[in-house]
Structure formats: structure tokens, C-alpha cells
Amino acid sequence: LEENWCLLMKCALGSEDSCEYPHLQRIGVKIASNLKGSPLAARMIGGTLSNTRSERDWNSISGTDIHNDIVSTLLSSYYHLPQHLQYCFAYCSIFPKNWKFDHKKLVRMWIAQGFVQTESGSLEDLGMKYFKWSLEDLGTKYFEQLLARSFFHTLRQGNRMHYVMHDLIHDLAQMVSHSGCARVEGNMSKTIPSTVRHISVSSNFLPHLKKQCDLRRLRTLIVYKDSSMTSSTIPVDFLSEVKNVRTLDLTGCLISELPEAIGHLIHLRYIALPGTIKVLPESVSVLLHLQTLDIPKKCQLDALPEGMHQLVSLRHLGVHLKYISMIRGIGSLVKLQGSI
Fold first, then answer.
1. Which residues contact 174 (CB under 8 A, 6 or more apart)?
2. DSSP of 45-69
3. What is the rounded distance in angstroms from the CA atom of residue 227 to the CA atom of residue 254?
4. Are 294 and 269 in contact (CB under 8 A)?
5. How far is Cα 311 from Cα 289, in angstroms, rounded to an integer?
6. Whose CB among 8, 118, 180, 196 lies 3.0–4.6 Å from 42's, allowing a Cys bridge?
7. Quick check: helix, strand or coil at residue 213?
8. Closest CA to 170 of 42, 74, 43
9. How far apart are CA 269 and CA 108, in angstroms?
10. Contact (Cβ atoms closer than 8 angstroms) between residue 195 and residue 179
């Protein structure tokens, strides 16, 4: 109990001395006793309490019915999140378990879906009311809030820092997003609810997706490479049918040429392409809402579309520097924030 209480108070108060808050110490003991010795639960609840020193807020947590089932505790932390953070967290359920998140790319996906807003409510929650922030800065603050509440934890590999979700946290994300998000990993018999708007599939399942859900309703489609496949294609007319998609990640499709039909996706904000891509059609240039174009630097492109300068909403261009000079009128891309 004492170890859990210490961890809880450390996560809740940070560098502050708990002795300065004797009334919160007493409530903290009560909360810790309900966590059944779970360090993960202590970090989650502590993160939830980190932005408040209100005795009423702490009592509200202590009064929550925390059962032996740790998921109930995690649900309590989730429901105490501001709504905009709930959307961002639930969205992460479309990624596989043990996924190594690149937080910058995740933030760009959140932005593409409209989850990151500069409305006063979300700014006040983050203590940012009186400052002007870009969507990327604000989305990064969202991520930092979820990290502080232990919805993510860090994983360092060499010089690279990744972020991962504990299995229980991932289960929680699936639980709270079941009606809006789905993940299909080689199971072609899986039932996909008609309410699903965000989905990830393995590349071998892509040809069967049309039979399982209404492609017109999708707002996110992520395709992962199937380990047993050496090549893959995008079904004929497939792109024409996912016409309302905003986020499209094709990194699992081992294609060399992006279909001309990409131009039909007039709502597209984010697209990530595989390292095998060599040809981008000119129709890419009509995607006027496109914010992120992620082309792996190892790609050997024949050329970039001549009309790239027309992408007036483009904020992030992931491409090898040698291709930048190919873009005519690059100076007109005034919103470009930098390469990925």
C-alpha cells in the first residue's frame, strides 16, 4: 500500500512535496488502498490528478467504485479525460498491440481527423489560453497530456525514442472505441460494425474489405504489410470508393505506382506511401486539402508531379531533399512546416 501511495503521489504532485498537502495525503491513502497493488493503476490515477489540487476532485476519484478488475480503474482515468483527449486516445486502438508510435506522425493523423482544435475549452485544459499555438504544437501538448497520465510510456532503442501502449491500455482503447474503430489482422470473418469510421487492415485483407464494410463511410484507412506477402496491389476502383477518407496509410502495400484515382479523394488530409513507390500521378496535385505527404526517403522516384505547387494546404512533406528542387513554385507552399 505504501509503495502504491508513494507512486500515486509522485505522479500526481510531480516535484511538489506531498507534505504541503496533508488533506490530499489522506485522500491519496484511500485511493491507493483501492488500487489493489497495481503500479499501472497508480500511475494512471496519479496522472489524472496531476492537474488539480482540489480536494473535491480528489474525493471524486476516491469515491469512484474501483473494483478488483484493473480495467475499471483504467476506465475511471479515461472518463476523467477531457473529451478531445478521449477522441485522440480512442483513435490509437486501430494500431496493433506493441506498436511503436512516432508521436509526430500520430499528431498529424489527429489533425487530419479534426481532433486537434484551437477552441478555448481545450486550450484552457492545457493552460494555453493566452498564447497562439499551431495545430502541431497543440497536438503535441495533447500527446504529452496522455503520456503524463500513463496512456503511453517511453521506449528508447539506441538513439531513437518510441512510445508504446501497455497491453491493458490498448485493451482499454479498444473497449472505448469499438463502435468507431476496428482493426483486422488476417481474420476475414471478423464482423465490422456499420458505425466504424477508422480501420486498419493487413494487406492481404484489403481486397476483401469492400464485402465487410461500407467504404464510403471510412475516414481512416491504414494498411499494414502482411509478413507472408512479397507483393500487393490496390484493387481496381478501390480508391474511388473510399472517397471520404481523410487519413490514408498505404505503407503495407508493396506498390511501385500510386493509382491515378488518388485524385478522387478530395477530402484527403494525410497520406503515407510505401518505400517501394516510384511514380506519383499528376492527380496528386488536385488534393487541395492535403496536409501531409509522407514519402520514405529511400524511395527512388522518377519525378514529382508538376502541379505540386498547387497543394496550398500542405504542411509536411516527407521526401528526400534531392526531390525538393523538382517542385515548381515551392515558394508558394507558404504553410509548409518542414520535412518529416
1. 93, 181, 183
2. HHHHHTT---HHHHHHHHTS---SS
3. 12
4. no
5. 7
6. 8
7. coil
8. 74
9. 9
10. yes
- CB-based contact 47:149 (threshold 8 Å): yes
Radius of gyration of the CA atoms of the chain, in A = 22
CA distances from 76 to 9, 27, 176, 286 (A): 17, 16, 12, 45
pLDDT tens digits in sequence order for the chain, 340 residues long: 788 899 889 989 988 888 999 999 999 998 888 876 777 778 778 888 888 899 998 998 887 765 445 667 788 889 999 999 999 999 999 999 999 999 999 999 999 999 998 764 555 555 555 456 789 999 999 999 999 988 998 988 888 888 999 888 898 999 899 899 999 876 556 788 899 999 999 888 888 888 888 999 999 999 998 776 656 778 888 998 999 999 999 999 888 899 999 999 999 999 999 988 998 999 999 999 999 999 988 888 877 888 888 999 999 988 766 666 666 555 444 445 444 4
